[in-house]
Queue: 2 jobs
Job 1
Amino acid sequence: MLEQRDRWFSRASFVTAAIGSAVGLGNVWRFPFVAYKYGGGAFLIPYFVALITAGIPLMILEYGLGQMMQCGAPEALRKVKKRWEWVGWWALGVGSVISFYYAVVMAWCWNYLYYSFTVAWKDDAGGFFNEQVLQKSAGPGELGGLVWPVVFALALTWLIIYFCIFKGVRIVGKVVMVTVPLPVILLGVLLVRGVTLPGAFEGLGFYLTPDFSALMDHEVWLAAYGQIFFSLSLGFGIMIAYASYEAQTADVTNNAFITSLANCGTSYFAGFAVFSTLGYLAYMLNQPVSEVIEKGPTLAFVTYPLAISLLPKAVQIFGVIFFITLLTLGIDSAFSIVEAVVTGIRDKWEVPRKKIVFGFCVVAFLAGLLFCTRAGLYWLDIMDEWMTRFGLACVGLLECVIIGWFFKTRRLKDYINSVSEIRIGLWWDIFIKVLTPAILGTSIVLSVIERIQKPYMMTKEIPYPPWSLWVGGWLVAGAVVAVGIILMRIKGKEIE
Ligand code: PFF
């Protein structure tokens, strides 16, 4: 490459940025409701198995590949074999779609941060979220115009992302020194507040008591794998891009373990903060915990705020702390996908970085407008289901197959072992070549069959019209693959 590749300041800034990407809304907003929906405490078992069998091996793979090839996902896979470049673009496409709605969830957080000063939701948290914040329509077919406060907040989110990322990983390295520790400290504050409330232990009991019958359901397993991919930012091309800014001699395995364990530890920890507070809510409402917990993406915006509004003291402060926690958690995840896309494009074409960042932010804002309509929550829920469940899992599966069977895990393993303190053994080959693809492949096939037979729904009461699942699910998923193939076919600058 002609110009010198951008570099992280230090190993600490790389690891912090990677943790920043991994630890996000997914840990506090997504993990608790997914865990609850799929067996409560029992979900921790498939989640942990998914971490060991897919999370850590793939983190090592993505770091190793990015660092060895010194380029983002599409170019790195092209170097493995020319015809696999599209998989890298596919990863970036899936990540981009996720970032379109992820930024909208952040926009809700901005709205709630503002409402925290007056605890505006205190009389009816559910009604407030659905009628005032989302102005939710009756179904995905009824878009009903834009909800302006969410649109403004979305614009603000993309503006901030632009300024965090437009100069490259050196600025990122500095931003994450604040956006990574701050939410962890704030979560600690929420945790202490949570566990000292009456009813907290019933909430925690609920979080930690396993429903083992859930383990027989393959849906639970796929949900656990989906959550691991989402949470560790795997299958987005992000970790490959971030690692490509590390020196080729940097340690791989250690960094991969640190990132994966820090991320899953944070999810587990956040579960304590959330469920103890929900236990308090149940206590105050005099209902069983199972009655008060939402099973959908509204947990952080209805149930948790409701619990905050019932606190004996300093209600506003805890509201502000909670939403600042979510915003600082989300921002470094959101800009990491922009960095991955910028890296992918700049590896292939000569385009100034600022132009790509600006273009991406504008496109993402415009695409996000769909989720700012009155039907936004429905589309968000549908796309989240397809992108995380099928999109990330398929990319993960293909990464394993490509590296395991077309590149020979040995070559990558030898490289990783030559630079790392912890040496990886045969177990890693077995996971990447056989076990992980077998588990992912089986669950994807079973889930596709299931999705076709039994349409997806957010809650049992509101079934989606089938056309909306075809459009928001299968069509978008197919379009992302098609874009990947088209981008592969466009000629780039010649490298090497
Ligand atoms: N790892 C992030 C989380 O758990 O919140 C997920 C994520 C979302 C990463 C969107 C990147 C992204 F663009």
Note: The chain has one domain: 11-489.
Job 2
Amino acid sequence: MARPRVLSGVQPTGSLHLGNWLGAIRNWVDLQDSHDTFFCVVDLHAITVPHDPARLAEDTLSTAALYLACGIDPARSTVFVQSQVSAHSELAWLLNCVTPLNWLERMIQFKEKALKQGDNVSVGLLDYPVLMAADILLYDADLVPVGEDQKQHLELARDIAQQRINARFAPRDPSGEPIAILRVPEPLILKQGARVMSLTDGSSKMSKSDPNEGSRINLLDSPELISKKIKRAKTDPVMGLVFGDPERPEADNLLGLYALLAGLSPEQAAADCAQMGWGQFKPLLAEAAVEALRPVQQRYSELRADPAGLLQVLEQGRCRATDVADATLARVRQALGFLA
Ligand code: TYM
């Protein structure tokens, strides 16, 4: 029997950070043994906000290299670049024409990002979740491993597939039963790491777009920089690190990071740090972060030293992804009544 499908992606905008790793990529790695896994670098999404053309290709390559450095194995997973599989843009257009505008206008991320952009909001930014739905639906994905912030976009992808395509256009089998055109995906959001918060404000998400570099740890930060950022991270005047105190979001966030990076259960981390002051805890957290990222950074340098090898992985990924995506696109075109 075919293994269930997984698809996910990260935008090649700037450096990937601990949130991208712990909330998403880390969870992709384990799925490779049990699922048929597709991971794309979503470069078309990266141009929904103003971007630097001189950096896009390089950032796309470095993001792909980070996937591999984090443990994505091209022998078991299809790794590819979104813009190199034209079915993504084409399905996005078809889905655009059946998606109600007000579904997009109520997306939280759109509202947040649009607020930051002022007068310069592109149609692409509004349309971002439809392109994301196309990414997922093209591969008949059963599961989409993402961080908490993508939950609403996943709901939208499900609604488009179910209500706007299958319910309206599904052909019928001889007994009159509808034959689904698109598979309706489920999100996979693991509790631990699903929402990594900023180092400078425990109540806002760690994000690539935060202008304060000190708010995030990038996967390629040097050990010195990691220690410096953790040393400067926001704290509170209370002794002892605990989970779940709404008055202490920084303690909750940093203790959660420590558990994940040191490979401890939340209970173990909480027990170890219950009596610790910040001065004792922070060097421990810095060491855990440096040690967890060391093998990723080492593997990343090796991969970047062999650009031809990386391009070969992406070319192989492009071919496999195109085969799967084109078949789905053909199904949708047919259901919508286009001339064959
Ligand atoms: P992006 O690049 O913004 O984020 C990539 C992944 O990282 C997760 N993430 C976080 N997780 C925990 N804590 C954080 N602070 C944090 N910040 C980011 C995101 O939830 C995401 O899983 N729209 C997607 C990209 C995309 C996509 C797709 C994902 C495009 N098409 C199809 C899945 C399937 C995004 O947010 O990218």
Note: Residues 307-336 form the longest helix (30 residues).
